[in-house]
Amino acid sequence: MSKTLLLSFTLSALLGIALSQMCGNCMKNGVACVNQTHFKVCVNQATLPGNALYCGDGKVCTSLMGAFCFEGGSDVETVCDEQQDCPSCSAKSMFVCTSRTTFQMCDGTKMQKEISTCPAGLFCTTNAEEICVKECKLPNGKPDCTKDAP
């Protein structure tokens, strides 16, 4: 029984690693999940340029064929882990991204109340010359924060 339990645990861990590695990569169903609720269309195993598309309320991005956005629930395996936590203010921060497209000014280690939004088609990053940049100029190809909203 302990061998079966160990084998089951090992397979679950490997499946979790495989699923997390698929996040952002083109899959057999023709999309790349960029987070739990957004995806990009793939052609020839490359994502098309432009913004990620929203799966819809209550739906999650999966590797399922023909139904890459599926009603979320305990029986559905998502491709991406939970959305990454957004950075917080530090003594060195002037701004922090509070979602993929919003940011706030820092006052020491506290965020000021006003939320600023990047212009349409731009993403938030504190690792470039400007805080709002086109997707192709994002360091590592990802915004600082992948949350949809602050």
From TrEMBL:
GO biological process, any: chitin catabolic process
GO molecular function, one term: chitin binding
Cleavable signal peptide: 1-20
Family matches, as Pfam families: CBM_19
Family matches, as InterPro entries: CBM19
All residue ranges annotated as the Carbohydrate-binding module family domain in the record: 88-128
Keywords: Signal
Superkingdom of this protein's organism: Eukaryota
Name of the protein in its database record: CG13311
Organism annotation: Drosophila busckii (Fruit fly)
Highest classification ranks of the organism: Eukaryota, Metazoa, Ecdysozoa, Arthropoda, Hexapoda
